[in-house]
């Protein structure tokens, strides 16, 4: 089956076991701030919320593939050289690319998800893309050249869907890309494509427990 190139508002349902979420964009070659796009994952329980801090996988997560930050020059160095992950090991977050320089035409950030490892407490996984510091920098997806988010099957390499962010979300700064959810013993997939003029804190308060900040 060929991949499906989605337009804003379309919905599809499909079953995958291991998938990759690739985010790509070109560096800002004009004057002004770099474009710093981020892809994050929220592991949601039956109450519609993340049950613990490690269920929010993003560039600043404290749970990393290398648990000992003391091995690194600083906390920033530790987070730059390791990947965030969920406590069940099912979701491996991306290295943080702060400018789009990590690749030439390919994915700059990647999340890997193994649905067979997801804890039984997790009922769905929400994938979100945001522009870091978008409000103060006055940025939106329409200003970012060749930006996209895509979902592909890790078993076959086949691309299942792609959103062209600069075309389909030209005035927005964030998008809820997709929702993976349980139905019995299977996982299903919805392409959400819901856009906002918000940053990552909006989604934190939507899906997480603010007491984590205390």
What report would you give on this structure?
By secondary structure, this protein is mainly beta. The chain is 11% helix and 32% strand. Strand 10 and strand 11 (186-196) form a beta hairpin. The longest helix is centred in the C-terminal third of the chain and has 8 residues, at 200-207. The termini are far apart. The mean pLDDT is 90.
Proportion of strand residues? 25-35%
Name the helix and strand elements from N-terminus to C-terminus, one letter apiece.
EEEEHEEEHEEHEEH
The separation of the N and C termini measures 48 Å
Structural class: mainly beta
The total beta strand count reads: 11
Helix fraction, binned, reads: 10-25%
Largest sheet, if any? 6 strands, mixed
Mean pLDDT across every amino acid position: 90
Spans of at least 5 consecutive residues with low confidence = none
Q: Report the radius of gyration as a whole number of Å.
A: 16 Å
In order across it, which strands form the biggest sheet? 1-9-8-2-6-5
Q: What's the total helix number?
A: 4
- Described by the principal axes of the CA atoms, the overall outline is globular
């Amino acid at each position: 089956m060929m991949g499906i190139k989605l337009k804003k508002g379309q919905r599809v349902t499909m079953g995958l076991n291991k998938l990759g979420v690739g985010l790509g964009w070109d560096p800002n070659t004009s004057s002004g701030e770099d474009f710093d796009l981020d892809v994050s994952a929220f592991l949601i329980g039956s109450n519609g919320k993340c049950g613990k801090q490690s269920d929010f996988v993003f560039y600043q997560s404290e749970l990393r593939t290398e648990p000992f930050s003391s091995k690194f020059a600083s906390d920033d160095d530790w987070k730059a050289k390791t990947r965030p992950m969920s406590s069940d090991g099912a979701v491996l977050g991306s290295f943080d690319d702060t400018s789009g320089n990590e690749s030439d035409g390919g994915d700059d950030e990647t999340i890997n998800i193994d649905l067979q490892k997801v804890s039984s407490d997790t009922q769905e996984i929400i994938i979100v893309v945001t522009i870091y510091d978008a409000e103060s920098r006055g940025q939106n997806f329409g200003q970012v050249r060749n930006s996209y988010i895509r979902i592909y099957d890790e078993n076959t390499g086949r691309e299942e869907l792609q959103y062209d962010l600069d075309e389909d979300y030209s005035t927005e700064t964030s998008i809820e890309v997709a929702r993976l959810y349980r139905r019995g013993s299977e996982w299903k997939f919805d392409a959400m494509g819901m856009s906002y003029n918000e940053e990552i804190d909006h989604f934190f308060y939507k899906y997480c427990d603010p007491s984590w900040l205390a």
